[in-house]
Amino acid sequence: MCMTSKTWRRAARPKMYGTIWLVGDDSILHVKKKFKMKWGSRLKLLRRTLRENRILAECVRELKVPDVLGHIAPKGSDRERYVDVVASVVMACPNLERLTGFYNKYDHNFDRLSYALSTRTRLKEHVWVIAGDNSKREASSSYLSPGLLQPEQADTFLHLHDVWRRLETLFVHSQSAGVLDHELFIGAFMRLPSLKHLSISNFDAMDFDDTTLGALPPLESLRLQNLHGITDRGMLHYASSTAAQPLRHLSLINLEIMGLAVISKLFASLHDLRRFTFVQESSPESPIGGIVFQPIVASASLAFLHWDVLVPGSANDNLAASIEAGGFPKLRTLRAPSDHHGALQAVCRPLESVTISSDKYSFAARRAVAAGNETRYLRTLFAARQAAQARIERARTQARFKIVIEEAGVVKQVLKIPGFVGAIGSNVSYSLTPDVHGSDSAVIDVPDLLDGGKETDARDGCTGVWNSEHPGGKKWWSHKERFRYRRVELGRFF
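The structure corresponding to this sequence follows.
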């Protein structure tokens, strides 16, 4: 349409070049024969096209580049060259809003990709993978105070956020003992006036603690994961702050909250909360010896609840009693992979079956379940579905109701209604489906985003054979097999 009509060109061009996905490795034909490049041939061709046609470059909003560094040595000139190529393509897209597929590690040293992204004024989302080494942290904790970084490193990191006035989603993850001072978190937040969705994971208490939590700006979505500096007291203060009031999505993962009063305070304070994800090993408990009134936890706005407490305690029973007592009038979906005794399943709408067709082929998962039944609790959806289905099958073996048909005082027939698991009339659906299709983990995690090797669906590929009728023959239509891109959006993390 672009080639045949100027009118259609105006409408079709933004759709064609607004989102560009480069999936999988480069073709061997391009790498060895045609371009004699080791990697990045498609990126360089794209760069040439965008540089030659400024109108096309201005249309690009999303750029997905392949993560080939899994096949390249993590250090050395090859890695730097590939990063530079990606940076040059980013610089050719003046209106870029998001870069996906390739997330370079930032170790507080200059790299061209970080600089290139820092100049994109329309950027709407960004992923920081903060890398470092233990020697720097040990040295800094012994004689450098209070910061863990040199002043010029801290200033450089902050200045990378200066023009991101439209950034809405920020994902910050520490990898390999990555260092990011408390002051840098606060300074970065102050430079992002449009920030709405924030995920912070894997930082220790020296980087992110209760004080940092209290300095968060008002957000719509917040995910806190593996942050050992956050305590129950810090969460209580945050729940009472004005910055927490706009929250609609909240995820607390592996924070090891000890008191159920923290969860109760969050639900009572966050009046717009729609989605809550809670994952940890220990069970948050109520004060010993206190009088408990149900519902002990309640939310008038919550619609989706993921509740995953691995080691059984009173938390599951208290939550089930709160749901039964009407504490969650708008709750529609409850996902509980660690509902070991079925307390939460019992207060949801009855289901005929919870298993899926692929469960029968999960032989490795079956072996793990068999071993886990004797040694430990498992946090897998396969194990959860098997346990929930077993409860349903056991309930069916017993009659729940009996209907007696009499005629003239004589019993003619007795109908037995099989039992079921759940509460008739409940508006809550019991779900055991994952955030990422095909995953055995319920909640999407950092490896789902950073693992470029899982970006495609190997069952859905194309080699161009659909065009084999072309008179040019196989050399014209055949190409390297390309698989359908399995997109992982940052919005799934909230």
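The first strand starts at residue 19 and ends at 21.
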